[in-house]
Amino acid sequence: MKILQIIHKPQNRGAETFTCQLSSHLIAEGHRVKIVSIYDGNATLPGNFKIESLGGKLDAKFFDFAAWKKLNKIVLQYKPDMVQVNAGDSLKYTVFSKFVFRWNRPIVVRNASEVGQYIKSNIQKNINRFFYKNIRHVASVSEASKKDIKQLFPFLEDKISVIPIGLEPIHNIPKIDLGETRNIVHIGGFTFEKNHTGLIRIFENVFEKNGNVKLHLVGDGPLRSEIENLVRSKGLEKNVVFHGFVNNPLSYAASSELLVLPSIIEGLPGVILEAMYCKTPVIAYNVGGVSEVLNESSGYLITKGNEIDFANTINEILKCRPISKIEHAYQLVLNSYMNKEITRKFIKVYKTVVSQ
């Protein structure tokens, strides 16, 4: 098969990284893949793909004729069997291009979050209904994501599969020196979904009971300066470390005593699987598809918004390393969440879509 993958832009984010990893495995299975981005970007993504940009305009909300036309040209020249869209504005641009220029290729949407959490008005819902009316299939990252989009758009009920995110095998993950303190890590972009404000409150509670502890924040994003100001206002500068974007996030997970994820919106966070793979215990809020990998056997699931319970659980882990949970979580990832097997699930969906 020939697959055209559409991404938001070359950036070091989960959706784009996984798209490139999936594409590499598809090529290894004998398929052909081309990756196109809506917007320009300069990040280096896995697989050394030559990513062609549509040159989309960031300020063009609903009309970017030049980019739609360029995508139409790519579709006509490449002649893919199907087009897969992967988060950001990829669905919007792809559907508009198909609708305006009438190219005839099935669209598969990779749904990596909970769409309903972002739709706040009937206008937004109607616009998104138009987009999803023009696709062939949805690959949701979790049962929670599937349930969310099915409730929002019941007409998709027979067009949804659940295919989780996967990981690449890495042997001998190098550790880094984070100092003599007890180290907690959070890996993720500084966006409202990740709830860094709540995380700082949680850490403040932990710090009051355990002064020999540091919180390492790995990632970057639009809210970083706001969180830096919050940390300064609480006098926690020496105990909250901002690392920014790093090329080796697994090393930070492997070098910490636990990973925390108090997100308020999630699909199925790859960072949880990465920490499990590194044999690092995980504490997270019970949102989205988190409970599909994190349970009493594999980690610690906290009711959304219960910051006291979250902080107390951190202190429990710092006192006693949960060996049995760590091993169970590691085996879960090895058996169910590696990219080679995930790719085969995508291929099965592709074959069904193309044959319809």
UniProtKB/TrEMBL annotation:
EC id: 2.4.-.-
Cite the Gene3D superfamilies for this sequence: Glycogen Phosphorylase B (3.40.50.2000)
Any single GO molecular-function term of the entry would be: glycosyltransferase activity
Pfam families (alphabetical): Glyco_transf_4 (PF13439), Glycos_transf_1 (PF00534)
* Matching CDD domains: GT4_GT28_WabH-like
Q: Where is the Glycosyltransferase subfamily 4-like N-terminal domain?
A: 14-167
Q: Which residues form a coiled coil?
A: none
Q: Does the keyword Hydrolase apply?
A: no
Q: Which InterPro entries match?
A: Glyco_trans_1, Glyco_trans_4-like_N
Keyword Phosphoprotein found = no
Where in the numbering of this chain does the Glycosyl transferase family domain appear? 181-322
Q: Which PANTHER family match?
A: GLYCOSYLTRANSFERASE
Q: What is this protein called?
A: Glycosyltransferase
Q: What species does this protein belong to?
A: Christiangramia sediminicola
